[in-house]
């Protein structure tokens, strides 16, 4: 089973971004949510992939 991270914790892992910024990333397709009942989660692996993509983008072509 994949590890699910609650939205609040995911926002903290992404540098404490605001809810507005977080949900903008979801709307843009950068992150996807897993809904269980009323709660929303992000897969831990997806958070790691997102950070890797942004890190590569920041470095530019090598």
From TrEMBL:
Specify the superkingdom: Bacteria
Q: Which residues form the Helix-turn-helix domain?
A: 8-55
- Please give the Pfam families that the UniProt record associates with this protein: HTH_17
Q: What is this protein called?
A: Helix-turn-helix domain-containing protein
